[in-house]
Amino acid sequence: MQDEQIDAMSKLLKSMSHPIRLKILCLLQDKELSVGEIRDQVKTTNANVSQHLNILRGQGIIDYRKDANFIYNKIVDKRILDLIKKMRVLFCPNF
Amino acid sequence: MQDEQIDAMSKLLKSMSHPIRLKILCLLQDKELSVGEIRDQVKTTNANVSQHLNILRGQGIIDYRKDANFIYNKIVDKRILDLIKKMRVLFCPNF
DNA sequence: CAATTATTAAATTAATTTCTGAAATATTTC
DNA sequence: GAAATATTTCAGAAATTAATTTAATAATTG
Question: What distance in Å separates the CA atoms of residue B23 and residue A30, rounded to the nearest whole number?
Fold first, then answer.
């Protein structure tokens, strides 16, 4: 990797390295979820979830669709799914 | 992943997600390097490199051996090598 | 259209991280 | 043992990130 790629990669990793954001990504591995459903699972405020989602959107990791007044979020960068899967295999061998 | 694993994993990712630290890890992929050699390659101060190395040591990612007044650093957690390799395949397809 | 629900935006504060420069430690060499 | 080299430690300033609170937007329901 040369410096530009390292910078891009470190930004990506940084966006994944906050516990709330990493948990959001894990939750979104197999299904799409609304902001409220995510808020319930990570136990913080709506505004806080919204901010974290925005960071993940900014990185192009997730996207959303709107239905009524719900925003459903999902992972659109399949490489992230691969990476999370690899992390699980390497670092969480039990399950 | 349950919450404890997510916390541990996010700490690990955070330690890798600083551009200087990620570059250090890339440099240490195939060889061990002294602090001074690393300093030359990442172009910052000695103290700064030393601090970043300490963070990686604290995570158990790297270890060192002392020879004369040089400290040679190397990656000891093989899973990190695997993970970096995977990141390269996924995000840096051209080489 | 008023009330409700879901979400976002903006501003403020709090917390954490990073860098820098100087001083300290350890080893080697002369 | 003094000087030189390599690295670390420390303390503070600067920068970045995160959380909180409040207000705003947007769609839905009665």
Answer: 32
* A74-87 pLDDT per residue, tens: 999 999 999 999 99
Footprint of strand C on the protein (CB under 7 A): A 34-36, 39, 46-47, 49-51, 53-54, 64, 69-71; B 14, 18, 20, 44-45, 47-48, 51-52, 55, 66, 68-69
Rounded CA separation B78/B39 (Å): 23
pTM of the complete model: 0.94
**A18 in contact with B at a CB cutoff of 8 Å?**
yes
Contact check, Cβ <8 Å, A9/B87: yes
Contact A17 B14 (CB under 8 A): yes
A3-91: CATH number: 1.10.10.10
